[in-house]
Each structure stands twice: as C-alpha cells, then as structure tokens.
Recover the amino acids of this structure.
C-alpha cells in the first residue's frame, strides 16, 4: 500500500504514445492540440470601432458629418480637419482616427455633430494587433480546445487542426452479484451503478468510453477478457481490486504479462485501487463501492487521463474556502471529504460521517477536500483547499498543491 503522494507521482509520470490526426474545427471541441498555433495576422487585423458613433481626428467643439462607414467598408484614408464620419461597430477606422464618440454621447443638429462629453484619445477604438501580433503564439501544443480557445483559432481563419487522437477507453464492472440495468435483481444482487457512473463521469470531462459489460468472478473468464484489453488505451474496472478469495483480477493481469504499478492506497475512501500497465494499455481497477470508485476516478484517474492524452494542464485547480463546521479525521491515512461550497464556506457532508458504499453524498455535494495523512481534523472557520466539481485543470510543477497538509 502506497501513500496518496506516491500514487500521484506514479500516475503523472506515465508516458503514452499519442497518434496525431487532423480534424475539422467543428469537431475539435474537447480535443488536445498537437501543435502550436501561430498568428498569421494581427488581431484585430485592422483598427476598428468598438461602438456605433462618430469617428474624429481631433478634439473640437463641433464637426461636420461628411461620410458614413459601415462594417466591411473601405473607409477614406483620413478624416479632414473639422469633419467627422459616422461609423458602425467593427468598421475600419481611418488612419488618423483619434477617438470614436458614441451616438449617445453627442447630439446631431442637421449635418453637424456636437459632443456632449469630454473626448478621450483612443476611446472606443480597437487598435490593430492590440490582442495579438502576427508571429505570436496563439495556442500551445497540449492545450485543451474549448469554445473560448476555438474562437481565437477562428479569428485566424483556420478550418482544421492537428490534435492528439482521443484515448480509446473501455469500462467493465465486475462481480457475480452485479446485474445490468433493466434486469430484475434478486435480494442478493445489486444493480450496476458503476458502469453508468464511470461512463457519464468520463463523458462530462470530454472522454469517450465504451461500456463492455460485467467481468466474471472466475479466473479463466477474467483472463479471457483481459486478453482483449490491448485493444484499448485505457481500461476501467470496478471491483475486483480487493484481497478477497474471489478477487482474481490481479492474478489474471500478471499471468497475461501486465505490470502492476501499485495496488492499494493509504486513503479513505478508495483504498483498494489497482493500477497496472499491459504494453501500451493502462488499467485502472477502482473500488467496487460506488462512492469510492467515483472519488478515485475524479481525483486520481482524471489527472492521469489528461496526462496520457498529451495535455499540458493535468493538475487539479483548487480554490480556498472557510470551513463552516469543525470535523475530525482519522490520522495515519489520507482522507477525501465530500461537501458543499456556497462561494465562501465549505461544509462537510454529514460532518464527514458516511460510508464508502453510499451513493447520496456524491449527489448532494459540489466539492471535495483532500487531506494528508497527518491531518486529524479541521476547525470551524479554518481556511482549506477544495476541488469544486467539476474542477478545472492547470499546468504547474507543484504536485499536490490541491491537498491540505499540516502546516
């Protein structure tokens, strides 16, 4: 059994060969960029008006209106002295433009415009190249493409992008007591919560996964399925990672040539987690208890998946919160505590007193707090770090910056 710190060190040090593909920009959301994007022209490409109004070249008490410039028009090169032009938002400004006076800050008397407020130089003009200059890096290799970054790419007229091919992920449940959704469970059976939980959780962070069914508890049945693992980049299983007599999963992996990176973390909940590697395939065997499995997937597997995907931002981004009510922790192990964050205070769900097999806490919570092995409790009003759900990822060198340690 290893520490939480060791688990992160192992997971985030793994390497994966990522094929590259070129795809249409309309299908690139959520993908990881495989090349730097360099600006081929200034942004904005030309100086333009940020408002509907009047463009002037000097400060004066009144101006003669002699022209109108619409977005897309080629304007007169300069504005003559004593004159102004009406101009619409986004329209190119003449080369000697000093300021744009919004319509609401002026009055028009016939063909004369009279400003009603002080004229400020460069007001309401977006200058050529003020956001980004030609030759500068717009986006770097390893960035996750979002609606924010794609709008920046579109400003360069780019219609296709080179991205890392998404990880091919498979999900298995395990246990003879587990039955599929839509079936009739007996009193001794439980429904397959983990299959849909893992699938939807991965999807919410932009990963596509195939659900492959329930693994047998029999050794030969497990070995037969393990042989198919090499068809995928990442395998998730739930259950089968404990040390019970019927848990043959690790044995099957070893017999099929897998390397076990670790088995067991000094963590609650989520202790019986196994991570292995079989060729280029990574295997995450998460605890069978739904809460434990989901928390391990969120806090441990997701950063690893982004690293394996070629992303440069892989570390969870924490925020600071005040603890609302004091709660105690068992020292000697790391702890994950679910709770609610209201923008200022974090409140542990039921004071942290709930079982690892529970389901309701994950629904009722919007954040997670992780604590190192030496933390014995948290006082009322104490400032702690929490991970809001879903959490953002950042690029950095400070491992475990999102975990609470004893000062």
């Amino acid at each position: 059994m290893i520490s939480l710190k060791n688990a992160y060190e192992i997971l985030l040090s793994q390497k994966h060969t990522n094929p590259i593909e070129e795809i249409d920009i309309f299908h690139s959301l959520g993908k990881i960029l495989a090349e730097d994007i360099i600006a081929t022209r200034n942004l904005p490409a030309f100086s333009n008006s940020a408002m509907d109004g009047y463009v002037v070249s000097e400060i004066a008490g009144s101006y003669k209106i002699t022209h109108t410039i619409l977005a897309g028009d080629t304007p007169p090169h300069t504005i003559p002295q004593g004159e102004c032009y009406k101009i619409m938002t986004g329209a190119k400004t003449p080369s000697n433009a000093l300021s744009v006076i919004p319509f609401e800050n002026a009055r028009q008397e016939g063909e004369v415009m009279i400003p009603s407020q002080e004229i400020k130089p460069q007001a309401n003009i977006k200058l050529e190249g003020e956001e980004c200059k030609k030759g500068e890096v717009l986006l770097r290799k390893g960035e996750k493409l979002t609606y924010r970054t794609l709008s920046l790419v579109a400003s360069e007229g780019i219609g296709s992008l080179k991205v890392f091919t998404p990880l091919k992920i498979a999900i298995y449940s395990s246990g003879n007591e587990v039955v599929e959704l839509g079936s009739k469970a007996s009193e001794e059976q439980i429904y397959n919560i983990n299959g849909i939980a893992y699938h939807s959780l991965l999807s919410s962070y932009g990963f596509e996964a195939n659900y492959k069914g329930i693994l047998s508890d029999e050794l030969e049945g497990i070995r037969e399925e393990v042989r198919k693992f090499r068809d995928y980049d990442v395998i998730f299983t739930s259950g089968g990672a404990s040390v019970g007599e019927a848990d043959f999963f690790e044995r099957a992996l070893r017999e099929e040539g897998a390397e076990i990176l670790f088995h067991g973390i000094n963590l609650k909940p989520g202790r019986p987690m196994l991570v292995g590697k079989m060729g280029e395939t990574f295997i995450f065997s998460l605890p069978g208890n739904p809460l434990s499995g989901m928390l391990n997937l969120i806090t441990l597997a997701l950063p690893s998946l982004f690293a394996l995907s070629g992303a440069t931002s892989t570390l969870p981004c924490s925020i600071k919160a005040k603890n609302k009510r004091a709660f105690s922790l068992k020292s000697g192990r790391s702890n994950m505590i679910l709770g609610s964050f209201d923008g200022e205070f974090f409140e542990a769900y039921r004071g942290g007193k709930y079982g690892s097999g529970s389901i309701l806490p994950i629904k009722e919570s919007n954040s997670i707090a992780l604590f190192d092995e030496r933390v014995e409790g948290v006082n009322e009003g104490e400032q702690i770090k929490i991970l809001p759900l879903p959490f953002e990822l950042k690029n950095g060198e400070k491992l475990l910056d999102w975990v609470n340690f004893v000062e």
In short: The helical segments are 4-12, 147-154, 193-204, 219-226, 249-255, 290-308, 360-364. The radius of gyration is 29 Å. The longest strand covers residues 334-341.
